[in-house]
Write a structure and sequence with these properties.
The chain has 362 residues and is α+β, with helices and mostly antiparallel strands. The chain has helices spanning 7-18, 37-40, 82-97, 124-134, 224-228, 237-241, 243-263; strands at 61-65, 100-104, 138-146, 149-157, 167-170, 182-200, 206-217, 268-276, 279-282, 295-301, 308-309, 316-318, 321-332, 337-342, 352-355. The chain contains seven helices and 15 strands. The strands form three sheets. Strands 1, 2, 3, 4, 5, 6 and 7 form a seven-stranded mixed β-sheet that branches. Strands 8-9-14-13-10-15 form a six-stranded antiparallel barrel.
Length: 362
């Protein structure tokens, strides 16, 4: 730890700045470094394949991105909107990726971390309720586990360039006191660790879990400009150009790849929204890549059936369904489609329609 009472060190640093050698004190381009997961004690995340479907028709799936609680809010005092930015950016990137139609919940989380619990607890009925209310096939929940600082680095400073979490020793030098020269201690690195869980909206079962972690060095502490200046607000390009922002950017991209890997081979599912004589409306249309002539299979949760219990695991595996028949899409609007039942089918509002290959095998 540097002794700020040593005037000789501070004076030497000031002289170095004046003669143009300040670059030896602070790197002009601090690099983002990601701590290998093997060294951090966190299980590595498998690299996701390229986002190309290998499991049949490539429809866009509706997904709800819920709010992300913070385990230690004091760690993000300089980034008060960080949880909202993570949620919004994840939803934006899922939509840009091309395989998702995301929505965001306001203040509803998919699950909550329970004190003194080694495993995350969630309520399948709560997941199913979220999926019904928002009309989605999947629910994505997460939490920010760590965003703390590590170490210190020392830079030359002038004026009032000091942020919460930094310390500065000013030099009392004649003729230069007006500029308030000094030596400032600022955090050297910042960690990022977040969990994301993917749930099936029909059963409430967990179908994917990922932890994304790393560490950035360089510009990792932010001041009032992030809070009050809209041009430097979190989520802007200026934030993502910072060293910590680059780390966040990389982990969000990894999250999108992993989420698609989780769901790419699960059949596309939508719901029956309205039934009229000879007409059946489903809550998916052109934005989901449905087209006229598409055949969908109709399913219904088996009345009175109990959930299938998971042997040796927590929760349930899902709910028994019964196959009703097939539906032929005759009209496609951006957000819904109209179909006709093939054969004498009794389709009801709330039934599920699903693309799962050829219907002839049934």
């Amino acid at each position: 730890m540097c002794n700020f009472t040593l005037r000789s060190m501070a004076l030497a640093g000031l002289v170095a700045l004046m003669v143009g050698y300040s670059s030896t004190v602070v790197s002009s381009e601090p690099a983002v470094t990601v701590t290998p997961l093997a060294e951090s004690g966190i299980p590595p995340v498998a690299t996701a394949p390229a986002a190309v479907s290998t499991c049949g028709a490539d429809y866009r799936r509706k997904v709800l991105v819920t709010s992300m609680p913070v385990l230690s809010p004091v760690q993000i005092a300089d980034l008060p909107r960080f949880p909202e930015v993570l949620q919004a950016e994840l939803a934006r990137r899922l939509e840009a990726e091309g395989h998702f139609l995301p929505q965001q919940s306001n203040n509803e989380a998919a699950y909550s971390e329970q004190p003194h619990q080694n495993e995350t607890q969630w309520n399948p009925e709560w997941i199913r309720d979220l999926a019904r209310r928002y009309g989605v096939q999947y629910v994505v929940g997460g939490e920010l586990r760590d965003a703390g600082f590590e170490g210190e680095r020392y830079v030359l400073s002038h004026g009032n360039d000091i942020r919460p979490g930094e310390r500065k020793q000013e030099l009392n030098l004649p003729l230069l006191n007006f500029f308030k020269p000094g030596l400032k201690a600022t955090p050297a690195a910042r960690r990022l660790e977040m969990d994301l869980l993917v749930f099936d909206g029909i059963s409430g079962a967990q179908i994917g879990r990922h932890r994304f972690a790393g560490k950035a060095e360089g510009q990792v502490l932010f001041g009032a400009e992030v809070v009050f200046d809209p041009t430097v607000a979190m989520g802007s390009q200026r934030f993502f150009d910072s060293d910590f922002g680059k780390l966040v950017d990389a982990k969000l991209n990894d999250a999108v790849d992993n989420l698609y890997h989780d769901i790419q081979c699960i059949p596309f599912t939508a719901r029956v929204a309205r039934v009229e004589p000879g007409r059946i409306y489903v809550d998916a249309g052109g934005t989901s890549k449905l087209a006229v002539g598409t055949r969908l299979q109709v399913y219904r949760l088996r009345p009175g059936a109990r959930g299938v219990d998971a042997s040796g695991q927590r929760g349930q595996l899902g709910w028994p369904e019964e196959f009703i028949g097939t539906l032929l899409i005759r009209e496609v609007q951006p957000l819904f489609s109209r179909g006709e039942a093939e054969g004498a089918l009794r389709v009801e509002v709330g039934d599920y329609v699903r693309f799962a290959g050829s219907a002839e095998k049934y």
